[in-house]
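Subject: Sanity check before I submit

Could someone independently write out the structure tokens for this chain? I want to compare against mine line by line before I put it in a report. The sequence has 223 residues.
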Amino acid sequence: MEVAANLAVIQEKIGQACKNSGRKPSEINVIGVTKYATIERTEEAVEAGVKNLGENRNEGFLEKYHHIADKVKWHFIGTLQSRKVKDIIDKIDMLHALDRASLAKEINKRASAPVDCFIQVNVSGEASKHGLSVEEVIPFIEEIEKYEKVHVVGLMTMAPHIEDKEEIRKVFRDLALLRDRIKAKKLHHAPCEFLSMGMSNDYEVAIEEGATHIRIGSQLVGE
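---
Independent answer below. Compare away.
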């Protein structure tokens, strides 16, 4: 199926999820995850109207950035090694995987302007997932206040890949509650307005629980 047709289906499902939860589709940012897509397929997504692209490896990001550059907003959604920060940090619009102080320090050192970052939170506690525990997030935000180039715009998580929708919903709800606690603090360096959660298999539930950024790969650009 063509990317434009896939996008139309996704937008219809977003509309329904928003209707279910009293939200507006304009609140939802669709990030096309193109880590397994060819450059041609990625360009097709841009032509179809995808305005945000997500990559999780430096090499894949730089290759696609070279071809597409500033036609879209770029989101780095994978674990970022500190030694590779310098290669990408001034080319991306958002980092979705801030998970340690050493990375914040390196971003502060290498970035020419403040970088919008999501803190990655391992809400489910799965050993296979990266991110801070729920309890570690607020102390971490306090710790990184000294890095003026790190701007915490929100929180990111991945739900378990399971069939139980209610268990998935609880993960997203817990992240939203944590976001609300941080937002209420009105911190200059961490306004924490956004929630990056929901992928091809669970983005409708994520939207119902407050997601502002959903990361869609296979349903948009294919396997």
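---
OP: Matches mine. For the report I'm noting this point. The mean pLDDT is 96.
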